């Protein structure tokens, strides 16, 4: 059985490899930072299939975003406080914190995973980018997500796993931070 730590390490490696390729997304500057969530998830699935035999059978889906059959169901969100142009992105924190069922935030993803009746272990993953040093630190946002999930929505999350990689090539998205939590259960359903 693969651990979430192992998967997060592989995710981080795949994103650094994409960054180092200098392949730009659409009309944006080279680097991994500007890629959309959908493109990143598809890239990771392709990278895993090519580089790691252990991910045989990995697939992208609507729910979850990435499925490692009989292992893990993964939902992803991006936390990108600044756009490619260096300007603060409007509403960027909503990707994590919108606390209503049926929405597309990480909190909504927790509910979606819990209601999906999947045999795999469940996890939410946040891919974040910062300047070096951070102009906007992601830590308060991540802590707010944990508090809202546990105290307001009664979702039991595992301890946070985080991997940080610096020296990305994009002038704005210079540091990669990958956060992950196993979604263990809904505390209200006990």
What features would you describe in this structure?
By secondary structure, the chain is an alpha+beta fold. The protein has one domain. Helix content is 32%, strand content 23%. It contains 5 helices and 7 strands; from the N terminus they run H-H-E-E-E-H-H-E-H-E-E-E. Strands 1, 2, 3, 4, 5, 6 and 7 form a 7-stranded mixed beta sheet that branches. A hairpin with a 5-residue loop joins strand 1 and strand 2. The radius of gyration is 16 Å and the shape is globular.
Structural class: alpha+beta
How far apart are the first and last residues' alpha carbons, in Å? Answer: 26 Å
What characteristic shape results from the CA principal axes? globular
The tally of domains stands at: 1
* Low confidence ranges: none
Number of helices: 5
Radius of gyration: 16 Å
Helix content: 25-40%
Strand proportion, as a percent range, falls in 15-25%
The strand count comes to 7
Biggest sheet layout:
7 strands, mixed
Average pLDDT, all residues: 94
N-to-C order of helices and strands: HHEEEHHEHEEE
């Amino acid at each position: 059985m693969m651990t979430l730590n192992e998967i997060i390490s592989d995710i981080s490696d795949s994103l650094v490899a994409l960054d180092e390729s200098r392949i730009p997304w659409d009309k944006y500057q080279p680097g991994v930072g500007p890629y959309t969530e959908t493109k990143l998830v598809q890239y990771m699935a392709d990278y895993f299939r090519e580089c790691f035999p252990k991910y045989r059978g990995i697939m992208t889906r609507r729910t979850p975003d990435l499925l490692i059959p009989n292992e893990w169901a993964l939902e992803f969100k991006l936390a990108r406080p600044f756009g490619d142009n260096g300007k603060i992105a409007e509403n960027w924190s909503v990707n994590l914190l919108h606390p209503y069922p049926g929405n597309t935030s990480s909190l909504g993803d927790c509910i979606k995973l819990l209601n999906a009746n999947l045999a795999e272990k469940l996890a939410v993953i946040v891919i974040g980018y910062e300047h070096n040093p951070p102009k906007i630190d992601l830590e308060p946002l991540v802590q707010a997500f944990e508090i809202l999930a546990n105290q307001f929505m009664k979702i039991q999350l595992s301890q946070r796993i985080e991997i940080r990689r610096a020296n990305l090539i994009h002038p704005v998205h210079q540091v990669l931070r990958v956060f992950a939590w196993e979604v263990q259960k809904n505390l209200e359903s006990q």
